[in-house]
Backbone:
């Protein structure tokens, strides 16, 4: 076995199947005509919350540790966000670059603001690429972390513009990688979270009262447009899949 390659390919490890570790594609994946990839030890470690540590008294501390392991230092955050604004933002402008960097300068995302941390992690997630049409182990771990963080904050009563933006980016990730029914469920939850926040309020006066400034109102309106586009895209996709019909 070549140096640095794990004992099994990513798909066999995930499904707990016996893998013969043959390169470039293991025998089982070849027979099933499935993508096959081998994560190496050079990749960052998978960071998935331990369910035993997610009791009510410790859940936030546990998630802070998981976030810190992924977020790393300020230079890593800068690299992530620069990649996002250089790529995804060009065709999905649902974040204000000015507002984002203004807030980034005033917080420590790995410790101070859970909803802002969720947004930063979602920005990194949506920029992730598959390998041989399959998600890498670190990407799957990051996906699970962001989903856990969003669910935890939701259960704790947190709903903010950053949370809605993070939700939308997760849905775009799910849509882009064909993760169903997760994308379908997420798209519906996005609409309800945005409505609860007042993103779709009728008049400009109501929006300014809700968000405090016209700059944030403009950002919120772009988020609402992105949510509607994502929801319609997911519905169109689901309606074309045999045995899965949206209503």
Residues:
């Amino acid at each position: 076995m070549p140096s640095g390659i794990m004992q099994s390919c990513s798909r066999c490890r995930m499904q707990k199947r016996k893998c013969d570790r043959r390169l470039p594609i293991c025998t089982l994946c070849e027979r099933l005509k499935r993508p096959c990839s081998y994560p190496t030890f050079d990749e960052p470690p998978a960071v998935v919350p331990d369910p035993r540590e997610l009791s009510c008294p410790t859940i936030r501390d546990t998630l802070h540790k998981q976030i810190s392991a992924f977020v790393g230092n300020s230079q890593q955050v800068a690299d992530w966000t620069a990649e996002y604004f250089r790529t995804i933002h060009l065709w999905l402008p649902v974040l204000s670059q000015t507002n984002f960097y203004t807030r980034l300068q005033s917080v420590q995302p790995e410790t101070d603001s859970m909803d802002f941390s969720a947004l930063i992690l979602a920005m990194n997630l949506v920029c992730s690429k598959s390998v041989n049409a399959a998600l890498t182990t670190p990407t799957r771990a990051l996906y699970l972390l962001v989903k856990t963080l969003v669910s935890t904050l939701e259960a704790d009563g947190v709903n903010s513009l950053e949370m809605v933006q993070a939700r939308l980016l997760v849905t775009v990730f799910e849509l882009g990688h064909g993760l169903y029914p997760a994308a379908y469920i997420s798209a519906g939850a996005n609409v309800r979270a945005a409505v609860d926040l007042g993103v779709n309020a009728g008049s400009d006066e109501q929006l300014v009262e809700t968000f405090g400034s016209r700059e944030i109102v403009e950002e919120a309106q772009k988020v609402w447009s992105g949510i509607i586009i994502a929801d319609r895209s997911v519905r169109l996709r689901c309606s074309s899949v045999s045995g899965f019909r949206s209503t």
Observations:
- The CA atoms of residues 37 and 131 lie 7 Å apart.
- The mean pLDDT is 77.
- The chain is about 60% helix and 0% strand.
